[in-house]
């Protein structure tokens, strides 16, 4: 375990944080506009699927499909929660279920053998994940759109009084949120695994949401949260790759099963320690 | 986060959602080159066990286990009933949470730990043996003990999420999702290490067989149908009794209708949230124990299946009412087992049933928000009328 191991851990942290950070930006957008979005998980899976499937034809098609699909499903979530006044958790769970079932079905139908694609460089996604938080800070703080988005998230009633309909900023925010999360999914299938496997999102959408809370609904904070959780994903992988063994008190701590728990345990611990000191956008906790 | 839980509620709209689900998926099936009618025929045959004339396919694997009674296969129908059992338990678990305004997405983890604990307690008297042994406890004691163990494990896991919500403000959707992953990995770890099946030929993460004194015997030969179904129906009656005939149930519903108002009325909201999650988890835990005692007779990887998530659809379609849930669990059980059979008959992946389920969840979701926003007062009074 020399320097190489440490370098591998750092690199692995960055790449594990990439999809989390991208999805977390989606979470920030949606939640700052006052729309709970647990559909991030499904959007990641969606992006992974369409990115891979259309990426089989050409990378450009793949990227285009990822953006379009993310936008469409984001709009769907916005429609369900805003227009149809559906409970956002129900809408999110329903969409997650729909995407999980549909992609599993389509994967079996379209590529039962499990093809591979050349895809895209992971560095591309990493750079995007590094730039996006700053872009988002600027958008939220400095632009009219950002101001309106925050206004409808903090206090939809006052926004309405000021002549801002919550509908448009929210639709925009949730649509962009869908795009961000599906790009996160595209990273998984196009740049990381180079293939699609069903349920490959494996809870990353929920972890990304935890990163949003961890980062107090702030883009840079959420990116920090993504790095934090990314580190534990990386640690888990590195320990497994290196087949490092630790048996203490009769427990095989380095068993793959226990290592797999690591990111989830840390997410839970992080949530326990941060909440109470973090104030969510007011409209989120509002019982509409 | 109030849900409209109008019980006489438009069964009509639930049926419409189901129909719409089948139509949309029918189009999807047609587009991917199947014959929807043939698929749905196979689905119906698998769900009911009734053969309509000659078999669609020559290969009738799965349908012919056990004996035929005319055109009826008791085995196939029993499998549908067996699928209803965990769905009913998980649906009740989630509905109980919803009544208190909680989304318990953690039935999967609670069920998994219930199954693992049942496999541990069920193995009392069977220690280290490779073949099923009678066990040292009498049947009448071992069965309830094992069920109780499952309930306690699931209940504690649920209570943990309840505690995190009530005392730490961690949203239960996030905590239960994380607890699901942790529970599954913990159970698999135990099945791979400390409680691993001693059989030298076994490489998988599974525990040894439980003692025969903790087995539930199938009601129909070779099927998975056990007395568990009766327990599930009894649990539905129990949850209904709890909600509308006890003080605790009243408090649960009050918290669900508005935590702030309930607090003002002097209801200890935190305690109620924790208790509700504990009971919710216990129901899921029993479902896990039943899978171990009646079907696998040991813990195997994936014992809990998808029932934890299916339970969400069951609860929502059933309007979070125990008796509605009996109906919706029956529907989803029929759908699930029918889909298994359809996969064998027509090669349509059974996961298509998940798509039907998702569409139903979304359409039913549309329904209750609208109903609620129109007449909020009726909703608030509903609890009193129901009783």
Task: Describe this protein's structure.
The complex is a heterodimer of chains A (288) and B (387). Chain A has one domain: Orthogonal Bundle (ABC transporter involved in vitamin B12 uptake, BtuC), CATH 1.10.3470. Chain A is 75% helix and 1% strand. Chain A is built from 12 helices and 2 strands; from the N terminus they run ααααααααααββαα. Chain A has a two-stranded antiparallel ribbon. With 387 residues, chain B is mainly α. The longest helix of chain B is centred in the middle third of the chain and has 30 residues, at 139-168. Residues 1-5 and 368-387 of chain B have low confidence and may be disordered. The interface between A and B is large, with 42 and 48 residues.
From the structure above, extract its key features:
heterodimer; A: mainly alpha; two-stranded antiparallel sheet; globular; B: 387 residues; mainly alpha; ABC transporter involved in vitamin B12 uptake, BtuC; 0% strand; disordered C terminus
Helix/strand layout:
The complex is a heterodimer of chains A (288) and B (387).
Chain A: H1 3-32, H2 40-55, H3 59-83, H4 88-110, H5 122-142, H6 144-154, H7 156-161, H8 167-193, H9 204-214, H10 219-241, E1 247-248, E2 251-252, H11 256-274, H12 282-285
Antiparallel strand pairs in A: 1-2
Helix pairs in contact in A: 1-5, 1-8, 1-9, 1-10, 2-3, 2-4, 2-8, 2-9, 3-4, 3-8, 5-6, 5-10, 9-10, 9-11, 10-11
Chain B: H1 11-31, H2 36-48, H3 74-99, H4 107-122, H5 139-168, H6 172-192, H7 228-245, H8 247-257, H9 259-264, H10 269-296, H11 307-317, H12 322-346, H13 352-374, H14 376-386
Helix pairs in contact in B: 1-13, 2-12, 3-7, 3-10, 3-11, 3-12, 4-5, 4-6, 4-10, 4-11, 5-6, 5-10, 7-8, 7-12, 8-10, 11-12, 11-13
């Amino acid at each position: 375990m020399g320097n190489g191991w440490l370098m591998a851990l750092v690199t692995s942290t960055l790449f594990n944080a990439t999809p989390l950070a991208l999805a977390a930006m989606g979470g920030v957008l949606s939640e700052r506009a006052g729309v709970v979005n647990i559909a991030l998980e499904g959007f990641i899976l969606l992006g992974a699927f369409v990115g891979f499937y259309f990426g089989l034809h050409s990378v450009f098609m793949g990227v285009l499909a990822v953006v379009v699909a993310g936008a469409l499903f984001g709009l769907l979530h916005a429609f369900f929660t805003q227009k149809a006044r559906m409970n956002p958790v129900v809408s999110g769970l329903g969409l997650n279920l729909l995407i999980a079932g549909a992609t599993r079905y389509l994967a079996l139908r379209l590529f039962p053998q499990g093809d591979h694609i050349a895809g895209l460089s992971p560095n591309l996604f990493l750079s995007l994940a590094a730039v996006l938080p700053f872009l988002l800070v600027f958008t939220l703080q400095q632009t009219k759109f950002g101001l309106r988005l925050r206004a409808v998230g903090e206090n939809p009633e006052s926004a309405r009084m000021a002549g801002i309909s919550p509908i448009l900023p929210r639709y925009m925010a949730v649509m962009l949120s869908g795009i961000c999360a599906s790009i996160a999914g595209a990273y998984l299938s196009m740049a990381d695994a180079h293939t699609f496997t069903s349920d490959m999102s494996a809870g990353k959408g929920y972890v990304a949401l935890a990163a949003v809370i961890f980062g107090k609904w702030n883009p840079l904070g959420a990116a920090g949260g993504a790095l934090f959780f990314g580190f534990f994903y990386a640690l888990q992988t590195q320990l497994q790759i290196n087949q490092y063994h630790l048996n203490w008190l009769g427990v095989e701590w380095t068993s793959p099963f226990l290592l797999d728990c690591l990111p989830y345990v840390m997410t839970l611990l992080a949530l326990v320690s941060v909440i109470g000191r973090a104030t969510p956008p007011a409209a989120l906790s509002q019982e509409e | 986060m109030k849900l409209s839980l109008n019980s006489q509620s438009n069964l009509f709209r639930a049926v419409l959602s189901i129909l719409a689900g089948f139509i949309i998926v029918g189009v999807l099936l047609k587009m991917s080159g199947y014959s929807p009618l043939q698929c749905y025929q196979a689905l119906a045959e698998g769900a009911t066990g009734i053969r309509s004339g000659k078999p669609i396919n020559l290969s009738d694997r799965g349908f012919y286990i056990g004996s035929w009674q005319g055109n009826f296969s008791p085995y196939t129908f029993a499998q549908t009933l067996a699928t209803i059992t965990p769905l009913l338990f998980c649906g009740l678990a989630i509905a109980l949470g919803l009544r208190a305004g909680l989304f318990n997405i953690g039935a999967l983890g609670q069920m998994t730990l219930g199954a693992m604990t049942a496999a541990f307690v069920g193995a009392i008297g069977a220690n280290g043996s490779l073949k099923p042994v009678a066990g040292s406890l009498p049947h009448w004691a071992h069965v309830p003990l094992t069920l109780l163990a499952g309930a306690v494990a699931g209940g504690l896991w649920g209570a943990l999420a309840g505690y995190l919500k009530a005392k730490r403000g961690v949203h239960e959707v996030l905590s239960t999702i994380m607890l699901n992953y942790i529970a599954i990995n913990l159970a698999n770890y135990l099945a791979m290490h400390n409680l691993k099946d001693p059989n030298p030929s076994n490489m998988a993460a599974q525990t040894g067989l439980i003692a025969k004194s903790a087995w539930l015997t199938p009601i129909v030969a070779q099927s998975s149908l056990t007395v568990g179904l009766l327990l599930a129906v009894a649990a539905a009656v129990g949850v209904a009794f709890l909600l509308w005939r006890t003080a605790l149930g009243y408090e649960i519903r009050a918290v669900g209708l508005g935590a702030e108002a309930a607090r003002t009325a002097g209801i200890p909201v935190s305690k109620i949230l924790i208790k509700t999650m504990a009971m919710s988890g216990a129901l899921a835990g029993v479902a896990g124990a039943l899978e171990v005692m009646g079907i696998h007779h040991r813990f195997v990887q994936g014992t809990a299946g998808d029932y934890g998530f299916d339970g969400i659809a069951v609860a929502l379609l059933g309007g979070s009412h125990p008796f509605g849930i009996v109906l919706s669990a029956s529907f989803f059980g029929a759908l699930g087992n029918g889909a298994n059979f359809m996969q064998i008959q027509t090669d349509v992946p059974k996961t298509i049933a998940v798509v039907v389920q998702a569409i139903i969840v979304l359409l039913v979701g549309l329904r209750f928000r609208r109903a609620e926003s129109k007449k909020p007062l009726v909703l608030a009074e509903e609890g009193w009328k129901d009783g």
